[in-house]
Amino acid sequence: MNDLTPSGKPKIPQAEGETAQSGRLSLKKLARHAKSVNLFYLISGAAQLFLGALVTMVSILNLVQPIWLAAFLSLFGCVVTMLGVYQVYEVFNSRRSVSDLARDAIERAIQDRN
Description:
Structural class: mainly alpha
Number of domains: 1
Helix content: 55-70%
Number of strands: 0
Distance between the termini: 22 Å
Strand content: under 5%
Number of helices: 4
């Protein structure tokens, strides 16, 4: 087997299922990362997103009669929606996988050696 890239540098081992273009966002990579975090955070973030948008929509459509209550619910729904978006963002960008850390460490060791 040839353990060198076309440029003459040694190949860096990759985790199972990863392609050479690991910078690309793929559904497989996203699903594997979502499995590595607690699924409860993802579900609660999505629920916050949906319910916050629903409460905001209900208050904007004047389905809540006292105007002060509709204004309060609209504000509350917006805040909950923003928190839901942030929580879903944190679920997918919270940590790098262990295989990425190992691959980066091997790459740094090889570059320092050369």
